[in-house]
């Protein structure tokens, strides 16, 4: 059974690049254009991993991760932040919210896939 990864990014092109890499590696993909959209799509189905941008309209990535982790069904879902942000302060906020990894754009799909493979829920 394939694993499902949610991609949350307000950039359609980033969602597309990430989705192509993930589907090529055998993952199912759910995509969302911001944190609010992502929360609306968390309907109880199993999400094995979330890849989220930080800077998004409506609900930013850090706030989204906090809300995700507050939901008992997704409390243990690993999160990778995929962002242009690289400051230590932002990374710390991401970690405090519950993010497990931080990948800075532009990224290599292979680098992202290896992080996904390490963190994805069994």
TrEMBL record:
InterPro entries per record: Bact_response_regulator (IPR050595), CheY-like_superfamily (IPR011006), Sig_transdc_resp-reg_receiver (IPR001789)
PROSITE patterns reported in the protein's UniProt record: RESPONSE_REGULATORY
Every Response regulatory domain range: 4-120
One Gene Ontology molecular-function label: DNA binding
Keyword field contains DNA-binding: yes
Keyword Repressor attached: no
Superkingdom assignment: Bacteria
Keywords, ordered alphabetically: DNA-binding, Phosphoprotein
Annotated positions of the 4-aspartylphosphate modification: 53
GO biological process, one term: phosphorelay signal transduction system
UniProt protein name: Response regulator with CheY-like receiver, AAA-type ATPase, and DNA-binding domains
Organism annotation: Thiocystis violascens (strain ATCC 17096 / DSM 198 / 6111)
Taxonomic classification: Bacteria, Pseudomonadati, Pseudomonadota, Gammaproteobacteria, Chromatiales
């Amino acid at each position: 059974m394939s694993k499902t990864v949610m991609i949350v990014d307000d950039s359609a092109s980033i969602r597309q690049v990430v989705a192509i890499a993930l589907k090529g590696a055998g993952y199912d993909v759910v995509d969302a254009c911001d944190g609010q959209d992502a929360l609306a799509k968390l309907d109880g189905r199993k999400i094995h991993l979330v890849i989220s941008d930080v800077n998004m309209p409506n609900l930013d990535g850090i706030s989204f991760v906090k809300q995700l982790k507050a939901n008992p069904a997704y409390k243990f879902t690993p999160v990778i932040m995929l962002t242009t942000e690289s400051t230590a302060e932002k990374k710390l906020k991401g970690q405090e919210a519950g993010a497990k990894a931080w990948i800075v754009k532009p990224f290599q799909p292979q680098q992202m896939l290896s992080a996904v493979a390490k963190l994805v829920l069994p």
